[in-house]
Amino acid sequence: MESPLDRIFEDKELVNRIRERLPYLFQLAEMESSRAGKIGMEVGSLREKIVIALLVHKFGKENVDTDIPITEPETDVKLFGRPISVKTITGMGGVKLAWTVDAQKAYEFRENYVPKCDIVLVQIKWDDIEEGSFFYFPLEVQKRIFKEVGRQRYIELPKAGTNPRGVEFSKEALLRLMTDSCTKSIKISWRHSTIEYKPYQRWIEYWSRKDLPIQKKVFDISDFGKKQ
């Protein structure tokens, strides 16, 4: 079954933009999430927003549903009503399926898990001789590999006695997803750019302003009963 995501890989101009601009945008996300040279975990959310913004750019805001409850374990966005999970990794690091520090909940997740949404995975390889990729794992590919290897080999639980951060794809499953003939990908050369970044500048400029922006109307009782 064809997915709207297929259109990204058929759009040569967009493919070139992804190759050229994604490293720059992800570098900005890392700068914005860094403190004292350490990148914070919030970088994942910023990367996710960058990828979702790409979907909005390609397909239009009216076709991209970003109003997904934070409690939803896998779906990050819906494209024409079709659920999509957005994930990013550095190198061949672990790809989370669910975040939990509870061993019992991790076990229950594995025992009840079945693939249910398309996955967009961005593999980052900063300044590496090997290229990273922008991957699309169709739901049908995930289901087939899940069935072939079985849930025990498809999902890796956190090791006992460690400080677990979640349930991950096994390395075997991830490699099979990446190399499957039906998986689509865009090769990306991850090179750092020279960027002059001043994280506090826009806030300083706001504090320095003598005027305040005109506040938009947030709520009006007369709006009740109007057809939305």
Here the CATH topology equals ECO RV Endonuclease, Chain A
- Termini separation: 33 Å
CATH class: Alpha Beta
Poorly predicted residue ranges:
221-228
CA radius of gyration is 20 Å
Tally of DSSP helical segments: 8
Order of helices and strands: HHEEHEEEEHEEHHEEHEH
Mass-distribution shape: globular
Q: Compute the number of structural domains.
A: 1
- Supply the helix-strand structural class: alpha+beta
Instruction: Report the major sheet.
Output: 6 strands, mixed
Strand content: 15-25%
The CATH architecture can be named as: 3-Layer(aba) Sandwich
| Strand segment tally | 11
What do these coordinates show?
The chain is of the alpha+beta class. The protein has one domain (6-208): ECO RV Endonuclease, Chain A (3-Layer(aba) Sandwich), CATH 3.40.600. It has helices at 6-10, 12-32, 43-59, 103-112, 139-149, 151-154, 171-179, 201-208, and strands at 34-35, 38-39, 64-65, 77-79, 82-90, 96-98, 118-124, 132-137, 155-156, 167-169, 184-188. Strands 3-4-5-7-8-11 form a six-stranded mixed sheet. It has a three-stranded antiparallel sheet with strand order 6-10-9. Strands 1-2 form a two-stranded antiparallel sheet. Helix 2 (12-32) packs antiparallel against helix 3. The two termini are 33 Å apart.
